Amino acid sequence: MTSETVPEALVQLFTDGACSGNPGPGGWAYVLRHPRTGSEKEVSGGERETTNNRMELLAVIRGLESLDRPCRVDLFTDSQYVGKGISEWMSKWKLNGWTRGQGKRRAAVKNVELWQQLDLLLSKHQVLFSWVAGHSGHEENERCDQLAVAAYQKYL
């Protein structure tokens, strides 16, 4: 695609989360790219005590929150948890009052407040999820990992 053929509202969002221990200090990061203009921004943050899954979710949430208008978003993450949550699990959780099957009974979805935030953001944007293998040389995923690790290291 040349810059002339890229829709104005298309962005690429690369995300990653990391923890030192699980739970432990954690970091999240995203790289947001606007292919038409070539502009790019990197943002990261961290928490003193968290889990890797929470950081993976926060990376996506913070990236989508940074968009000032509805966009077509190509989302790239190495998190199966986020990817399957978006593409397979979330619709069932919503139908079941944000609960999931646990044996013969129902249990609250873990990280439900983050999933609900993400659900609201997904309703504002057209998001296409793509999984990338972590630590496999994918340039943007590696950069997000570096940023996320740096974000949690301040808590060590």
Give me some keywords for this one:
single chain, 156 residues, alpha/beta, Nucleotidyltransferase, domain 5, 5-stranded mixed sheet, two-stranded antiparallel sheet, 4 helices, disordered N terminus
Structure description:
With 156 residues, this protein is an alpha/beta fold. The protein has a single domain (10-153), classed as 2-Layer Sandwich (Nucleotidyltransferase, domain 5). It is 37% helix and 34% strand. The chain is built from 4 helices and 7 strands. The chain has helices at 52-65, 80-95, 112-124, 139-153, and strands at residues 10-19, 24-34, 39-50, 72-77, 99-102, 105-108, 126-131. The longest helix is centred in the middle third of the chain and has 16 residues, at 80-95. The chain starts with 9 loop residues before the first strand and ends with a helix.
